[in-house]
């Protein structure tokens, strides 16, 4: 083989090797983990807020994601930390965080030997919260006057205690007018006929007169019989 042919073969082999190296380098860069492959979003899960981070690294290199609540450029609170392995379709991890409207969060991604930085810009939550607060009524309801408590019935007392003795009548009450005094039982007939206390004397006199009259009749008849015999 001539020198020219040998030099040409070496040159062709070098070109092929360089092309292969460039291809391998390009593929290596394509498979390397990069911060641009990560994205974050604030969402609602029903009435609760969540923060999601998605990794679209096709190489699936493990990366640690840490979420911080920010205030005036400083970390206020660490929300959580999770590991994610990306995929070409995208792998999503979720942090439970009941975020407030317009809150700011810093999301840091670290994959050893590949990336160690924050997702830019910081995540800002929506202006509307997940759970809507109940609006107060436009007109307050009319105040209702408090109900008057009903007095409870007092417990019944025994008959001996509840019945107090009747007061004795006074002299003015016990003495009835003379015309209203009921007559004794024995004098009820006299009261009905209008007789007074002299009725007994009159009855005695009448009886005596009856006796005298009877005697006079007896003697008169006897005298008449004597005259008739003579």
Automatic annotation (TrEMBL):
Residues 129-195 are annotated as: Disordered. Residues 1-32 form the signal peptide. Residues 150-159, 169-178 have a biased composition (Low complexity). The chain crosses the membrane at residues 201-221. Residues 137-149 have a biased composition (Pro residues). Keywords: Membrane, Signal, Transmembrane, Transmembrane helix. This is LPXTG cell wall anchor domain-containing protein. It comes from Streptomyces qaidamensis.
């Amino acid at each position: 083989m001539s020198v020219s042919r040998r030099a040409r073969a070496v040159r062709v082999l070098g070109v092929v090797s360089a092309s292969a190296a460039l291809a391998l380098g390009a593929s290596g860069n394509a498979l390397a983990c990069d911060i641009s492959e990560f994205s974050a979003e604030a969402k609602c899960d029903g009435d609760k807020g969540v923060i999601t981070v998605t990794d679209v690294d096709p190489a699936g290199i493990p990366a640690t994601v840490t979420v911080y609540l920010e205030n005036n450029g400083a970390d206020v609170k660490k929300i959580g930390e999770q590991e994610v392995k990306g995929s070409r379709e995208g792998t999503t991890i979720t942090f439970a965080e009941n975020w407030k409207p317009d809150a700011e969060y810093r999301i840091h991604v670290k994959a050893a030997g590949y990336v160690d930085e924050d997702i830019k810009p910081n995540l800002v939550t929506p202006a509307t919260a997940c759970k809507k607060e109940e609006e107060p009524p436009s007109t307050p309801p009319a105040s209702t006057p408090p109900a008057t408590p009903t007095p409870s019935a007092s417990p019944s007392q025994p008959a001996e205690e509840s019945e107090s003795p009747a007061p004795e009548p006074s002299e003015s009450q016990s003495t009835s007018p003379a015309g209203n005094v009921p007559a004794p039982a024995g004098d009820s007939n006299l009261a009905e006929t209008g007789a007074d206390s002299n009725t007994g004397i009159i009855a005695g006199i009448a009886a005596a007169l009856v006796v005298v009259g009877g005697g006079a009749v007896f003697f008169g008849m006897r005298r008449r019989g004597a005259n008739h015999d003579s």
